[in-house]
Protein: Calbindin
Amino acid sequence: GNGFMDGKELQNFIQELQQARKKAGLDLTPEMKAFVDQYGKATDGKIGIVELAQILPTEENFLLFFRCQQLKSSEDFMQTWRKYDSDHSGFIDSEELKSFLKDLLQKANKQIEDSKLTEYTEIMLRMFDANNDGKLELTELARLLPVQENFLIKFQGVKMCAKEFNKAFEMYDQDGNGYIDENELDALLKDLCEKNKKELDITNLATYKKSIMALSDGGKLYRAELALILCAEEN
Structure:
């Protein structure tokens, strides 16, 4: 459930894809053949759901509506998200999802019929509403982003436990207003680097900071949203 497949996951997917097409009496499309040639061998490469969607037949491939230059930026994605998650709760409901998708499509200069938009909304809920609560979390919708722009998966393996995260956040949110700014983030990231010397390279702090600042609201990083990146999910 981390938004991409790699290694054995990817090989198993390719095997099942080939078997399913053969069983249905269908050959692989040229796009599928190219995909199999590229990823069919043992590999540690990663492929995200948006990248994977490119091998689907065009009429079925609604995810590619979001695969355009305007939506490759996590900053653009978060600007649209902010419009609907104004309380920084980290999720939007099913009704807001339709408007959210419509805004993303307009940002990408795509015009579609309302019936098609409704269909896409229903597909999104089926694909991404992992806990079936009728709400789409930021962590779920961020999978629309290509892997290289997905700020939610860049810190896997270096996340703090909830207690550790809250202690660090409160240390830098000294006025208790629920958010920290970019300068305070520098200090928090240095703490994180100290605790995870093997996984995080302190020389890449600027890169890490750029990924996290995509979440900021006017330069403010709220606790709940920052926790999505830096706090271990099991906590």
In short: DSSP finds eleven helices and six strands in the chain. The CA atoms of residues 179 and 222 lie 4 Å apart. The radius of gyration is 19 Å. The chain has three domains: 4-57, 70-145, 150-230.
